[in-house]
Amino acid sequence: MKPVDTYLKSPPPGYALLVAGPWGSGKSHWWNSYSQGLKAIDRVPITISAAGLRSAEELESALFQASIEDLGSPVFREAGLVVGRALLRCVKVDPNDIKLKADTFSGKTVICIDDIERFAGDFSSLFGFALNLIDRGVVHCILMADETQAEAKFNEAYASYKERLVGRTVHVRPDIDAFCDQVIKGFSDDGLRDRLEAHQDAIVRQLKNKGISNLRTARYFITELAQVLGDTKAAKGADLDSIISAVAFWTMCASKSSKNSSLVAKAFSTTGLDLAMALREQSRQAEDDKPLTEMAALLDLIQSMGFSDDVYNWPQSLHFAKLVKSEEADFEAIAVDFQLREAVVDERSASRILAQLNSYRKISDRELQEAIRDARAYLHSLEEVHLPVVFDFYRLLHYLSEIRLFDVDAEAWTNEVLGILAAYGGQIDALSDARIEFIASPLSEQETRVHVVIERLEGQVESHFWLKQRDAFLHSILTGEGDVPDLVSNGPLFSGVDVVDFHRNLSGAGVSAVTRLGALTRSALRVGNARDFIGSDGSFFRALANEITANIPATNPISILDAQLSLVAKDLVRLADHVK
Q: 207, 356, 361, 539 — which has fewest CB within 10 A?
């Protein structure tokens, strides 16, 4: 930076030079790099930060601490201000003499005071400290500040003192290309660094196209992208455009506000094409007619951050959504969703087909028609079927039909899918219990017909899986086979169970089964909010207790089995009261 070169190569002129730029523009990054070359012009830099300091005394202490960085052992240097000042006394230097380094390197010292806008005290203290250095005429003084924040914080005082202190102001313009190059070259993992370098143009393009000039945001983006690529073990030849765009959206939105994380996660709970259709629909609405919903907030965020075109490249990835929310994520699943490893997923898998359809604008006509055929084949198969995937396939092909990329018209396609869904109704075991998370864009009349049927099937699947879970639970109580779950976390599970039949089966299973039920009952009694989970089972517990009691012999001695049943009946009554 030529003005800085000129200032520092000349004798101390008696004024400070201000390096200005917004937060994150790279002022500190530039100075750290620039100051390393000052030895070549016989200058010695000392850098301190004014952030959080409140007085001239604290500024002097910070200057001392920076001044002794080349004295003593690393232990001394890392021990902080107290040890640093003690060290100065050991070498017989008065800690209150602020001329330590200036006297040693008269005319050669460059003192840089960073983070002016973050000084916590009265600005006159900072001004007096800097003026004291300059008036001595033996140092060059570089001040670095975000002037917008400084003016807002110190009001008129900033402009007034600046006029008396600063001789020239230079503005830092962030060099995104150079910064990204430096950050990427800093990764020690050769393979990861090579992958980032191979896609460096795409990384820089994301930052520039989205208007990102804050280097902290740029570093955050690149660092998180490297972490994701490392954790997913992305292949060298993988197309990284989608994951680069997704991580860019996540990190740029998070840098803007931490409150955006839930909205970003929502974006990856549906397909990119669904978001694209929602954006298109929203653009048709008048500003006053736009609903104040979370979905509307997400669409506004996508548009304001410049990602409207990127959504076409985003797959649905529930585990990437978990990553965004700092929850435990399955990176294998993320690799599948974003197609980061060729060997991870079969060419005809639903994930692969969805990715191709979702990003249809990036593939050839032949590849698109093959993906359409594969999607129809998936829907007609009765292997394990995920209803959310079925709906995604339906909507994607419905959209492609509307824009004439699919040779079946929308009504015929709707009827074809309704016929497929009717067949699913007789094969509930072939359906997974996954549910549609949410739908971004409004449904047409045809899409609504399909969605209603899918919702009905989801209810049937849920009931089917619940019955299977209940039967497995009852079986484990009676036989002890497998892991016997507790009553509370898996409940309620006794709905629809016949009390007489269960009592007969319990008695027939013997003392061990009765003991297991007793242990489960007592465990549930220790859960304070058990009613929230198994309140609806309370009537069953009481009815079972009554059935047991009615069948205990009136004369003694009774059997061990009956004695155990009698104890369980008392616990069941207590549990019924507990969850009432």
A: 361
Within a 13 Å sphere around the CA of 416, how many CA atoms are in the beta-carbon half?
A: 17
Please give the single-letter amino acid code of residue 542. R
Residue 574 CB burial class (10 angstroms; 0-12, 13-18, ≥19): middle
Query: What is the distance between the alpha carbons of residues 564 and 307, in angstroms, rounded to a whole number?
Result: 66
**pTM, full prediction:** 0.63
Q: What is the pLDDT of residues 184-200, one digit of tens each?
A: 999 998 888 998 999 99
CA dihedral 239, 241, 242, 243 (to 10 degrees): 90
- Per the DSSP assignment, residues forming a β-bridge with 385 are 431
| Dist CA 117 CA 130 (whole Å) | 14
Superfamily of domain 2-173 in the CATH hierarchy: P-loop containing nucleotide triphosphate hydrolases (3.40.50.300)
Instruction: Give me the residue label for tokens 């070259």.
Output: 185
H or E segment at 232? Answer: helix 215-232
**Cis omega (within 30 of 0) on the bond before 22?**
no
- What's the whole-number average pLDDT of the chain? 84
Element (H, E) at 373: helix 365-380
Closest CA relative to residue 389, chosen from 405, 401, 377, 404 = 377
* Cis peptide preceding 291, ω within 30 of 0: no
Name residue 306's amino acid. G
Q: Where are the domains of the chain?
A: 2-173, 178-345, 362-460, 485-578
- The dihedral over CA atoms of 407, 413, 419, 420, expressed in degrees to the nearest 10, equals 70
Return d(Cα 17, Cα 143) in angstroms, integer.
6
CA distances 290 to 328, 441, 512, 516, 580, Å, are 35, 13, 63, 57, 45
SS3 call for 434: coil
Question: How many angstroms separate the CA atoms of 552 and 561, rounded?
Answer: 10
Q: Which residue has the higher pLDDT, 361 or 145?
A: 145
β partners of residue 141: 111
Give the closest residue to 161 by CA, choosing from 177, 147, 176.
Answer: 147
Residue at 120: amino acid letter? A
- The three-state secondary structure class of 170 is strand
Place of tokens 């050669």: 108
